[in-house]
Design a protein that fits this description.
- By secondary structure, the chain is α/β, with parallel strands linked by helices.
- The chain has 23 helices and 10 strands.
- The strands form 2 sheets. It has an 8-stranded parallel β-sheet with strand order 1-10-9-8-7-6-5-2. A two-stranded antiparallel ribbon has the order 3-4.
- The longest helix is centred in the middle third of the chain and has 23 residues.
- The radius of gyration is 25 Å and the shape is globular.
């Protein structure tokens, strides 16, 4: 006898509780929306995701990934190793090896109304030949973006594979020294630091450094740096504190010397950056400049903001700079940069992330005996992230900024949506969301279906070149990898639901 519809579906107990805020009636991320997305995915895709997240949740796998990869290559050979990687971690997080594979993966995203930003996944290569090769790879990446059907074209680049590491480190130290001198010069007698320097403050602090200078000498320097204005801004300080200027000659003992060979290397690097930036501008492709470790980040920041944005963002936002909210200085740095953008009259592009280098930054601070640049707790980083979000949203509302909110945190996504509604920012009005390919797709799809603009970070490249890149990212971004446990449970529940026809895994709202 056929039981037909009289069969009662067994309801599995909910095996986890999602500790984010309870959803409202308008919540996009209800059990129904998440379940609807999961049902639209193939079993193969769900199973691969579950397996990958099962693996990367273990530190022993992440920490020893290089050794495991080498052993697999030695025992099974290159062909089998490549096949295994493409069926697992590479297939989960990477679009493909060539243009055809990339466009195929992008079309799948488009089925869910999800957009993308493309990057060539590359590790650092410290030779001039490799710098040029990476540049050509980036230009090829831009060409793929142009050939896609998406009219909202975005690519992402890392600066570090384009220049000698020692050069970036040295210039980073010079920029840092200039910034510390600015803080020293702007310090008030009560100990407070301001974001500009008055004549009185400049005279007081300069005489501490150079007691032989007369008041007239200092006043002449002040006029030279300020452009005959009543104050010296951070922009004027950086722009005038260059080799050969009077103030530089007075303070040059504070800076490392750049050799003629290094100046030549820098000129070639700038040429590469300009070629990439001009290609993006000519083809209306936005470029996201990734943040990196603090020992080179000041250099990267200078290139992204003071060179690329200043040049390319006059009438439209082409360049976005990335801000890591795990750093203590991020909020203050943002305020300096917004003032600079206002003075130079360009549109500020900003991608905000929590950050990926926490473990390394803290290790280096311990080893080198300098203050830890990171926030003390995850909660402090989240508070910083939300404060930066509030500042940026107001700038978007004033039409002075374009913002990418890159997060896999549901609380932060909900908060951003709420702020957009409060400020009257439309879904296409200067705020977009960013997430990693193969991660938190159950959040990306409902966002896109509701009309918000969501872009997936889509890396591509040859398997054996990209895997070291993925390993480094996993090792650097441990906080993001902690989400693997939750993602695995969601996918595991869907697998059980399909295999055993058990219903109700999302019996409660997530």
């Amino acid at each position: 006898m056929s039981l037909g519809n009289n069969v009662r579906r067994i309801v599995l107990p909910v095996k986890f509780r999602y500790n984010y805020a309870k959803p409202t009636n308008e919540d996009l991320f209800s059990k129904d929306s998440i379940s609807k997305y999961l049902k639209s995915e193939s079993f193969k895709s769900i199973a691969r995701g579950w397996f990958v997240y099962k693996a990367i949740r273990f530190d022993v796998f992440t920490n020893n990934a290089d050794a495991i990869l080498n052993w697999t290559h030695k025992v099974f050979g290159l062909s089998v190793t490549r096949w295994l990687l493409k069926k697992t971690i590479y297939g989960q997080f990477v679009a493909g090896e060539d243009k055809d594979e990339v466009l195929k993966r992008i079309k799948k995203l488009e089925q869910h109304k999800i957009k993308f930003f493309l990057s060539y996944a590359a590790e650092e290569r410290n030779t001039e030949f490799k710098f040029e090769k990476i540049k050509m790879n980036i230009l090829d990446c831009i060409s793929i973006v142009i050939d896609s059907s998406d009219t909202d074209r975005i690519t992402a680049i890392k600066i570090s594979p384009l220049a000698p590491h020692d050069l970036m480190h040295k210039i980073n130290s010079i920029i840092q020294a200039k910034h510390q001198l600015f803080l020293q010069m702007s310090r008030q007698q009560n100990g407070e630091y301001l974001n500009s320097i008055s004549l009185q403050t400049f005279q007081h602090n300069m005489q501490k450094i150079h007691a032989t200078l007369t008041s007239a000498n200092i006043e002449d320097l002040f006029k030279q740096i300020s452009g005959n204005q009543h104050k010296i801004t951070a922009r004027r300080w950086q722009d005038n504190l260059v080799s050969g200027s009077d103030v530089y000659n007075l303070l040059k003992r504070n800076f490392a010397e750049v050799t003629s060979e290094e100046k030549d290397q820098l000129a070639k690097f700038i040429q590469r950056i300009d070629e990439i930036g001009n290609a993006c501008k000519a083809n209306n492709v936005k470029v996201l400049v990734d943040a990196e470790q603090t020992y080179i980040q000041k250099f990267i920041h200078q290139i992204a903001v003071h060179h690329m944005m200043k040049k390319l963002n006059k009438t439209e936002c082409i360049v976005y700079n990335t801000y890591q909210c795990l750093l203590k200085e991020t909020e203050e740095q943002l305020k300096f940069d917004l003032e600079y953008a206002n003075e130079e009259n360009f549109i500020y592009g900003l991608k905000m992330v929590r950050g990926a280098y926490l473990v390394e930054e803290r290790r280096l601070a311990r080893e080198m005996a300098y203050p830890d640049p990171t926030n003390p707790t995850l909660e402090a980083t989240t508070e910083m992230y939300h404060r930066v979000m509030d500042i940026c949203m107001r700038e978007v509302k004033r039409d002075r900024m374009r913002l990418m909110i890159a997060t896999h945190n549901l609380d932060s996504v909900r908060r951003a949506i709420k702020q957009m509604k409060l400020l009257g920012i439309s879904k296409g009005g200067g705020v977009i969301f960013g997430q990693i390919l193969g991660m938190c797709d159950y959040l990306s799809s409902p966002l896109a279906q509701a009309g918000y603009t969501i872009h997936k970070a889509v890396p591509y490249g040859p398997v054996m070149e990209v895997i070291p890149y993925l390993i480094r990212r996993a090792q650097e971004n441990r906080s993001l990898m902690e989400r693997a446990n939750f993602e695995r449970k969601i996918l595991g529940g869907e697998i059980k639901d399909r295999l055993f026809y058990f219903g109700g895994y999302f019996n409660k709202t997530i």
